[in-house]
Design brief:
The structure holds two protein chains of two kinds. Chain A is α+β, with helices and mostly antiparallel strands. Chain A has a five-stranded mixed β-sheet. In chain A, α16 packs parallel to α17. Helix content of chain B is 35%, strand content 30%. Chain B has helices at 26-37, 56-71, 83-91, and strands at 2-7, 13-21, 43-54, 75-79. A four-stranded mixed β-sheet of chain B has the order 1-2-3-4, with helices on both faces. Classes of the chains: A alpha+beta, B alpha/beta.
Amino acid sequence: MLNGEQWSQLLQSFLEEGGDLLKQAEECLLVLDGDLADEEAINGLFRAMHTLKGSAGLFSLTPVVAFTHQLESLLMAVRDGERSLTPNLISLMLRCLDELGSMIGRINVETGAVEGNDEVLQTQLLNALAAEMGQGSDSLPTPTAPREGQVQRAPATGEGAWHISLRFSPDLYRNGFDPAAFVRYLSRLGEITHLEVLDENLPDFHQMDPEACYLGMEISLRSASSKAEIEEVFEFILDFCKLRILPPESSLSDYLQLIRELPETDERIGSILVASGLLTEHELNTGLTMQAQGEEPRAPLGSVLVEAGMVAPAVVNAALEKQQVVRERRAQESSLIKVAAHKLDELINLVGELVISAAGAQLQARAHGHSDFIESTQVVNRHVEQIREAALKLRMIEIGDTFNRFHRVVRDVSQELGKKIRLEVRGADTELDKSVTDKIADPLTHLVRNAIDHGIESAEERLAAGKPAEGHLALNAYHESGMIVIEVSDDGRGLNTARIRQKAIDKGLIDPNANLSEHDLHMLIFAAGFSTADSVSNLSGRGVGMDVVRSAIDQLRGTVEIESRPGLGCTFRIRLPLTLAIIEGFLVSLGGEYFVIPLDMVTECMELGDQPLIDGIYGYLNLRGKPLPCIDLSAHFDLPASAVRRRNIVVVSQGRQQAGLIVDQLHGELQTVIKPLGLLFQHLQGISGSTILGSGQVALILDIPSLFRQLQALVDTGASETRSVQNRQELLPRL
Amino acid sequence: MLELRHDTHQDPALLALTGSLTIYEVRQAHDELRAALAGGQRQWRIDLAELEELDSAGAQLLLALQRHLLSLDGGLDVSNPTADVLELLELLHLQSLYPDVLPAQP
């Protein structure tokens, strides 16, 4: 059954439709006011009234139906040339439209009744119309009389009965068909409670072709038969008539129910209607043909069917609803499968192992030099790579959900602080691994709160500084060289380096005489126990936030950088690897030891040549006229000095920084699974993990960001001669 | 086979149909009726006592005739339908042609 809310919605849409139709009708009338014979306007007016009557009938709005019916009859006579319009009639009809508008306005959406219907006025109007028509009459005395009867009878006899509407083609008799025979046949299906032969289309007696059929029929049939069975009765004359079969009004709701209970297997609306028995196959085909013949853009089948009177709008709406439900469910089914996260992890682990064993197989193949074998391992590898990518994508989710929670955070926090702040989110569709997303949410919250609390000034301060009173906070995410970059930026006051410095000195974090760069001063806010806020607020200022942010990002093998412009704002830029599980690596070797450099960070490789490093282990090379800071990796890691004459440089970059890593040999790309270092080795600088090569050898994965930091520290302190304290023996686990 | 006789000396003018009034006879009937109407009578009575067969096409012709006469402020009354003819009039609920045809009761 249609519940109250759905009914109200349908009725509401009728009210809107009614308003539109009346507006159309009025426009037509105004056209006719200028040109009484404008056929298009007459047709438009007739259609509007006809549609209004039909729709009102569906909602059992009897006063509207009865009133509209009179107007429709008049217009039909005008359209058929039996009457002509007069200016008086147009004024009257305009008043009738006004009354219709007010009737529709008085419809109670809850009850579906026309409240406070002014029948007196309506009768007056109708009488005036009748009088006016009587004067203009030239052919037919009482064309409205039988139709009046029809309207009055319809509610009484239509109850619980099928309504069958027949309009015969002129050729019917000539083709040997007698409609009476079909009526007789129809009466076998049930009781014909009402039948009316429509003779309005009969031309003047002298003009008529007696062998042509001008008749139509409206039949009410009380029967338990289906629509298809009823249609079958008229099977032979389907080509010679327009047949409309409407289900009993009382059972309309049953059909709506039926539609809802249909198995959700087919999503085509036509099929839904046929399956529910409201539409016959023949009607569906006719409807489809009509739709196909229609002008572009094609009308939806549902509206074609309603327009053609084959089905009731309410039914189409129900079917559409059904279709929507099915589609939504399908969309959900296809886009969402809930899988326990550990199952995905398991899969990715296995894929990781597969990557390693496939690499092993390829190595074996190369060692044996068997070309067919090599070829097939290459194919296997390609597929493994695809599987790996697909598997990793399974865990990729958009960062938008994480971002969206900040709307609420920003709203709450800014209200608490009495600041007006607008949050802008960009790059919400940027994807990253779910495990990363989960872990980055808290650090981001800290950064956002910090920006609102410390970064963005109060409205007064902002206005005084010539900025808009409303603060602006932006969250942005994008991919950059295999990393995801998340930015939290505000247009606030920026970091106050002087105060940070003072605070750091007060807290004993730095030496008062230390000459720190702007960048280093900025990074001090991430130090444990550092807080610059003068008052400890609920939100931040306890000095616990920022060092938590830093360590969370470190755990994710990410980096954070601060870009602050005093008085203009501050941007925190977090770089994170897309996934924690597998990396595309570039394999290099130092002597007999293998190292993997994340491929995304490799920009180029070149031969070192005879050019010596300016400063030994850490120094500069000339790269196309620019100094390139370099690390001699074997010296850095205290490996035995290289015996290889021709060494290579791998140029790596991170953000805007570039550095050269001097290695012995280049072995090319590989994809590999990161095996985290054990707890014992987690403190190691410059190494982020390990992996197992196809040959079974262990390769260490270089932690480029940490190498950059080391290099930077060495360059900054001028301690370029200092050797790494890291000992080779500490570094490698014994295998 | 249709035989159509009319007597315009009576008031209402009398029309008697014998035989069949079906799709096969309507053209003939139409012609003859138009001729009969040429006399100008507006009030007619039609006697169907001898009419054995009527179909929808025939009924349509009678309806058209009735409408025509009504539009001239005249009329057409039908009398003495045979059982078969009455069956059709009843089937199609053509009360206007034969008032004794009762409208179906719900």
